[in-house]
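REQUEST FORM: STRUCTURE PREDICTION
Request ID: SP-0412
Submitted by: Lab K.M.
Chain count: 1
Length (residues): 346
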Amino acid sequence: MNFKAITITDIAKALNISASTVSKALSDSYEISAKTKQIVLTYAREHNYRPNPNAISLKFGSSLSIGIVIPSIQNQFFAQIIDGIESVAHDEGFTVIIAQTHESYDMEVKSIQQLTHRAIDGLLISQSSETFDVSHLENLRSKGLPMVFFDRVSDQIDTHKVVTDNFQGALNATQHLFDNNYSRIAHITGPEGLSITTDRLNGYRQAHAQNKTQVTADYIKHCSYTNNNVAEIERAVHELLQLPDRPDAIFATSDTITSTVLLLLNKLGIKIPGQMAVIGFTNSSFAAVLAPPLTSVFQPGFLMGQKAARLLLSLVKSKKAVTEFETVVLPMQLIVRESSSVSIQV
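STATUS: Completed
RESULT:
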């Protein structure tokens, strides 16, 4: 099933005028009246028309390229996902075009427009933290663009999705801290509204319920995932440390949050895990070489990329409309290291 960008012929048929008239209107020819130009330009804009640089490829029904939209390539997790996607796409003869949103909804919309103007055969996307309105994606999906979500997904669009078991990963991490005698567990997580934030927070809450411990609202801090969020994370840590009954453990849920927490605690002279245990969500290689080595929830980024790419290419190659979709949930692994060693209660 191939997604085809709207053509001059499509516009001509829709407006019941000649393709020549459409072409001249789009090129602002003096031969076309202002009224007709406005009608053509309005229709073209509303239906995502752009001059197609891949016209030769489209002649054969495919550009042999897929688009990838991610929040940031600086995030090692997304870099691993891209590696997984490319390993599958290249074997199948497809090239990949990568766009970053930098956690911006507007950038996401613009990036997807640019990708579809290049006549991609399909789209792989992990939403930005600002994306709540998915009408730009629903519009493309309704026109036949094969689309697969990964990591950060939308429940509003019916298609294949690949996620990790964020709920169970967070539950296991929090339970591990309870098992090691920590009871005042803070949770520094991502922005509200993201599917991964919700699932991880629910896992954290479930661990408290299992241990018959009340969740302390002041222990939960939401931080953005932007590249300039260090001050925001530092403020969250300072607020936690100033609480009358300050936490004895911090469970962080991204590479940036985890690394910033560690740096700040070390700067303040707070011993890990003697005075504060730390667990992170991270795929970074630095976790094992820190002092002390960091206990972390490992996410299978490379495998996620492979799964998502295979699902997308199955849609692209399908000769009939696909109406049944699956959500693949990949397990996470808690890798226990010294940063969460047993707390000695006195």
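NOTES: Confidence is low (pLDDT under 50) at residues 53-60.
Reviewed by: T.R.
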